[in-house]
Predict the structure.
Amino acid sequence: MKKFMPLFLAISILTITVPMLKPIILLTSIMSTNGTLQLFDEIMNLTNGGPNNATITISKYIYDLLFKYTPNFGYAATVSYAIVFLVAVLSFIQFKVTNKKGSGDYSECETSNYL
């Protein structure tokens, strides 16, 4: 019986623990994706884009479009809207992947059998 204990542990983690943590996993994945796309301070303070723009991010690119080069407000606004659309699409995909039908839904359980 001892040699099957890791198998029982893995099954219980995959069938009980992970479905209960799905809302938290969804929240942290969406917030980390948004944080990654909006990364600006560290790049600006540490490398200012690095040699030959090696560490430039989307936010730094928009900043450069608005304030460093000849200001091109229309193109910078278009890139900003593209980021908003990208964040919305990525959040929707993460939401759909995390909330598959039947996972984490305990409304079908009958509690009267256990009382």
Remarks:
- The first helix runs from residue 5 to 37.
- The mean pLDDT is 81.
